[in-house]
Amino acid sequence: MDFSELKAALADVVAIPVTPFAEDGTIDTATHRALTRRLLDGGVRIVTPNGNTGEFYALTPDERRLVTELTAEEAAGRATVLVGVGHDVPTAVAAAEHAAEAGAAMVMVHQPVHPYVAQEGWVDYHRAIAEAVPGLGVVPYIRNPQLAGERLGELADACPNVIGVKYAVPDAARFGAFARDAGLERFVWVAGLAELYAPSYFATGATGFTSGLVNVAPAVSLDMLEALRAGDYGAAMKVWERIRRFEELRAEEQSANNVTVVKEALSALGLCRRDVRAPSRVLPEERRAEVAEQIAEWSL
Fold first, then answer.
1. How many CB atoms lie within 10 A of CB 59?
2. Angle (nearest 5°) at CA 300 between 13 and 189
3. Which is catalytic among the residues 125, 141, 167, 197?
4. Which residues span the domain enclosing 204?
5. Which of 15, 36, 47, 80 has the fewest CB atoms in 10 Å of its CB?
6. What's the angle, vertex CA 130, arms to CA 208 and CA 54, rounded to 5?
7. Which helix (H) or strand (E) holds 189?
8. Taking the CB of residue 278, how many other CB atoms lie within 10 A of it?
9. Domain contains 266
10. pLDDT tens-place string over residues 199-219
11. What is the C-alpha to C-alpha distance for residues 291 and 215, in angstroms, rounded to an integer?
């Protein structure tokens, strides 16, 4: 198959939408649709339902399917849908097959949740998923700094639908080496640590980056992408400076507030409730004002 269109779609701001909850704790479907439309109206052209900012691990299997369907329906004809899948192999395969049925074009495979991950076992895990959906593009989500680039090359040798990588090890030099060991031109490299890392990862080979901030301010993320595509790192760093504190708040305590801060910002804008599910937790009252101050500076 020709995956060139999907590769082009990945080289962009890859939005990771939040999953809004109603007062009773269920998914607020109307708000989910509205937030998705807001992203699309803001210029976003690729979305990842069931990503970490969408609280993937706190959702039930039925809820993950619902989020996939809601997103695919709203994005139809407007954006590419890259669905997050994971957990054990049968669960991940079933989610990938459901994504295909719902109209998604690609799946992002969350890193295996297991205390013992052999490098060859990493290949086996992703191969089982990729082979189950040969018509979908497959994007491994890599957070393991010990994984060798050659293993990704082996996976793609067996599964040509493995076309891109979300790389989220916080080390630009390590990323540059990994990409070249795997095949720099062979894959689309997506900086998986969002805007704060995007400039350094673009300098070493990335052509796209993920974003949770984009839920709040699509234009800000797209401004950074435009600058990076043009090779204007001065302009990109001006955007970086604007969003630095917001992203630092999300990264505090090993990213404990990654989702919490985004939802707090959306709540301040009147777009959704601030509710998150355990093990995340809403911000204490005294911290909420700082989030509101940050987004006020963006003139949303």
1. 18
2. 10
3. 141
4. 3-216
5. 80
6. 50
7. strand 188-191
8. 6
9. no
10. 999 999 999 999 999 999 999
11. 14
Domain count, the chain: 1
Active-site residue, 201 included: no
Amino acid identity, residue 263?
A: K
Structure tokens at 187: 């894959």
Q: Please indicate, yes or no, if residue 184 is contained in any of the structural domains.
A: yes
Gap between the Cα atoms of 55 and 278, Å rounded: 10
Binding-site residues for pyruvate, in ranges, read 53
Inter-residue contact 90 to 53 (CB < 8 Å): no
The single residue of 125, 166, 167, 197 carrying the catalytic annotation is 166
Residue 50 belongs to some domain of the structure: yes
CA 244, chain centre distance (Å): 19
SS3 144: coil
Residue linked to tokens 């459901």: 98
Residue matched to tokens 């079933």 = 94
- Is residue 83 within 8 Å of 57, Cβ to Cβ? no
pLDDT tens-place string over residues 232-284: 999 999 999 999 999 999 999 889 999 999 999 999 999 999 999 999 999 99
Whether 100 is in a domain gets the answer yes
Single pTM value for the model: 0.96
Active site residue 263: no
pLDDT tens digits, residue range 153-192? 999 999 999 999 999 999 999 999 999 999 999 999 999 9
pLDDT band at 224 (very low <50, low <70, confident <90, very high): very high
